[in-house]
């Protein structure tokens, strides 16, 4: 594991509400481990593009995967810089004035350069990491990658070296305004619905990874 805090660079220095931010590696990893979707940002011919993707984290590395024909993965394989962002939306904040409405959140921004994995064992480990991020233990239940999977899939590793996290908690900031509007916070959480099997799903019933689906920060739901 790298140093407990990320080095502060010009690109990651928080300028607005810096008291809500941190460069603490453990705090950032807790958020990355809870988030299900990452927005992967690249610049193509001067046009910024953010693409939602699954990901996994193993210690100080993020893993992304995509089809070999994917514009995003081909671009990153060429050594382009990348920005990976995850956001956990914890609530909506209702203030007296329309302008001061806000959100409670925890988010992480990772900046870096991706490297394509070529060693088959490393590719298999990274793909397992991505699928286990969705449902811990799932990689042991699903068929592992075969030669065709490895030929048609590009797996990228992004080192987590330059990163920042930011969070907002609590209700609206106090305003002198005396408007009679309701003020407060509406908490939001991810919950799981009941799993829907395919007609040919194994008759052995729900696998361990789904009974119950248990990820960091998940609210209790139907199982
Ligand atoms: C929750 C989630 C997880 C995903 N996980 C993965 C993953 O792990 N690996 C993976 O390869 N793909 C994943 N996808 C699909 C991914 O978002 C892209 O659609 C796909 O990777 C194609 O990327 P590309 O760069 O080749 O897109 P292209 O088809 O080359 O993109 C061309 C344009 O299409 C539009 N576009 C592309 N994707 C989207 C989108 N998702 N929504 C709206 N507009 C879009 C954009 O304008 C983009 O500039 C995921 C999508 C979601 C929503």
Description:
The protein is of the alpha+beta class and about 220 residues long. It is about 15% helix and about 30% strand. It has 4 helices and 11 strands, in the order βαββββαβββααβββ. The protein has helices at about 25-35, 70-75, 120-135, 145-150, and strands at about 20, 40-45, 45-55, 55-60, 60-65, 80-95, 100-115, 115, 155-160, 160-170, 185. Strands 1, 2, 3, 6, 7, 10 and 11 form a 7-stranded antiparallel beta sheet that branches. Strands 4-5-9-8 form a 4-stranded antiparallel beta sheet, sandwiched between helices. The longest helix has 15 residues, at about 120-135. It is globular. The relative contact order is 0.20. The model has no long low-confidence stretch (mean pLDDT about 95). The structure holds flavin-adenine dinucleotide.
Key features of this structure:
17% helix; binds flavin-adenine dinucleotide; 7-stranded antiparallel β-sheet; 4-stranded antiparallel β-sheet; 223 residues; alpha+beta
Gist?
This protein has 4 helices and 11 strands.
């Amino acid at each position: 594991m790298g140093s407990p805090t990320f080095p502060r660079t010009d690109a990651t220095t928080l300028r607005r509400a810096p008291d809500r931010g941190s460069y603490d590696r453990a705090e950032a990893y807790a958020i990355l481990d809870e988030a299900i979707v990452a927005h992967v940002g690249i610049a193509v011919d001067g046009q910024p593009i953010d693409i939602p993707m699954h990901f996994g984290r193993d210690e100080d590395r993020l893993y992304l995967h995509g089809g070999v024909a994917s514009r995003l993965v081909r671009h990153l394989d060429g050594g382009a810089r990348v920005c990976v962002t995850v956001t956990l939306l914890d609530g909506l904040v209702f203030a007296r004035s329309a302008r001061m409405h806000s959100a409670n959140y925890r988010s992480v921004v990772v900046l870096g350069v991706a490297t394509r994995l070529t060693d088959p064992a490393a590719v298999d480990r990274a793909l397992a990491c991505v699928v286990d991020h969705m449902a811990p233990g799932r990689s042991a239940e699903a068929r592992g990658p075969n030669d065709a999977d490895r030929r048609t899939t590009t797996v990228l590793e992004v080192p987590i070296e330059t990163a920042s996290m930011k969070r907002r908690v609590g209700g609206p900031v106090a305003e002198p305004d005396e408007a009679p509007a309701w003020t407060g916070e509406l908490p939001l959480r991810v919950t799981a619905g009941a799993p829907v099997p395919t007609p040919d799903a194994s008759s052995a019933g729900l696998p361990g990874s789904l009974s119950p689906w248990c990820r960091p920060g998940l609210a209790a739901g139907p199982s």
